[in-house]
Design goal:
single chain; alpha+beta; eight-stranded mixed β-sheet; 13 helices; 46% helix; elongated
Length: 429
């Protein structure tokens, strides 16, 4: 019987190919809708949590509080560490905290450490920040509570890692002080940001680097995990402030956009599901049409088989067996193709990042900025080459092979952009 079924497939190769293609399109469409509804949904939610926080996340601005009393601040940190929900506090400093890489801890830092000091986006926060936001570690670990660590530690993101170049230490200070404070770089985090960011423990800075503690305001990010209502969160936060630093909270609201993501994903998933069902329905109709046409053509053959003793079961198996074998083969092929497509999408290379450093002279003008950036982009494939202008100079290079660290006079501009550059030869053509 199996030989007869396989022979039947070989008799009509075009019919078999058309049937297979229609089935393949319908099955791949169904698999695609399922992937979007599961893997795609989880991925987008995770990306949203990296930037805006897990849904729901409530943000509060703290006003008229005593943020400089060490004892009160320590009580504040302890209260937030003790709550059952996940809540983090961030502090905005009045002066930028600058950092530079350090290879080792020396009593007198070399001059290049002072020359390489750079103002990063510094997030002075508490240990729970990585739980409010989705911050998976690329290497190392996250900040520990000040009661456990007892040292100055920082965590850098992937963009800042290129600047520190695997240095174990970071020297930090503010512009109003010349002294440098060493920090241990304990981890690299994937925070979803495309600009260099450093995360520092607020309690450690308050205790061990008081010169940097020039806080202006504070924000609280609260992610409820125990079923608290927003009214209960308001009351709990008010009690914490009253018992510690005083003041009150204001400008309460949602910092995440989980509801927007959820509605968009639901509509997208529904649209893809309806489309895939329609494709599958059309595929089934085509298969039925081909099957009926084939059955009509084989009526005389089947009557002869029935007359010479073939049972009804044998006739049914003969008619449907070829379609069953073809369906099994197409299902495996569709699953294999879907896995290959998912793997290829995940392996797509990122666009190259090029860095340009501009050093304007006294004759530089801001209105020339865009014009000069265009020139930099056109010449970005010349690593380490200086492009001279009447108002300054431009140095270009790739992020994996940057333009070095020329001694630029203040002010400096660091520009990062994404470009697609076609292959070029050694002459840059």
């Amino acid at each position: 019987m199996l030989k007869m079924i396989l022979k039947d497939l070989r008799l009509s190769p075009l019919r078999s190919i058309l049937t297979s293609v229609s089935m393949l399109v319908g099955i791949i469409a169904m698999i695609g809708s399922v992937l979007v509804g599961t893997l795609g949904r989880e991925y987008l939610i995770s990306v949203n949590a990296q930037v805006y926080g897990w849904s729901p996340t409530y943000s509060f601005v703290i006003a008229e509080s005593d943020l400089h009393d060490r004892n009160k601040m320590e009580q504040l940190f302890q209260r937030f560490e003790a709550i059952d929900d996940v809540a983090a506090v961030t502090f905005s400093m009045g002066e930028d905290i600058r950092f530079a890489p350090m290879k080792d801890l020396t009593p007198i830092p070399p001059n290049d450490v002072y020359q390489n000091l750079m103002a990063f986006d510094v997030v002075c926060t508490t240990e729970a920040y990585s739980q409010v936001y989705n911050l998976p570690m690329t290497s190392g670990r996250w900040l520990e509570p000040s009661s456990e660590g007892g040292s100055l530690e920082v965590v850098i993101n992937k963009e800042a890692k290129n600047y520190f170049n695997d240095s174990p230490y970071a020297a930090g200070n503010v512009k109003s002080t010349l002294s440098l404070t060493p920090f241990n770089i304990v981890g690299v985090v994937n925070d979803g940001r495309n600009f260099p960011t450093i995360y520092a423990d607020s309690a450690a800075i308050l205790n061990f680097a008081p010169a940097m503690w020039q806080v202006q305001n504070a924000n609280v990010y609260w992610h409820p995990t125990t079923g608290l209502t927003i009214e209960q969160i308001h009351s709990a936060l008010g009690d914490i402030l009253t018992d510690t630093i005083g003041g009150y909270w204001e400008s309460a609201g949602r910092s995440d956009i989980g509801d927007t993501y959820d509605s968009v994903l639901s509509i997208l998933q529904l649209g893809l599901l309806v489309t895939s069902l329609l494709l599958l329905f059309v595929s089934v109709l085509g298969q039925i049409n081909i099957g009926l046409s084939s059955l009509e053509q084989r009526t005389h053959e089947l009557l002869i088989r029935r007359a010479i003793g073939a049972s009804r079961t044998n006739i049914v198996v003969l008619v449907l067996g070829s379609q069953l074998i073809l369906s099994i083969f197409v299902c495996f092929a569709a699953i294999l193709i879907s896995l290959i497509l998912v793997h290829c999408i995940g392996a797509l290379p990122e666009k190259p990042t090029y860095v340009c450093e501009l050093s304007p002279t006294e004759r530089g003008h801001l209105y020339q900025f865009n014009y000069r950036v265009v020139g930099c982009m056109l010449n970005a494939h010349h690593p380490h080459e200086s492009i001279g202008f009447d108002w300054g100079s431009v140095y270009c290079g790739h992020e994996d092979d940057p333009c070095g660290a020329p001694d630029f006079p203040e002010p400096n501009f660091d520009i990062m952009f994404f470009v697609d550059i076609p292959p070029f030869d050694s002459k840059g053509e």
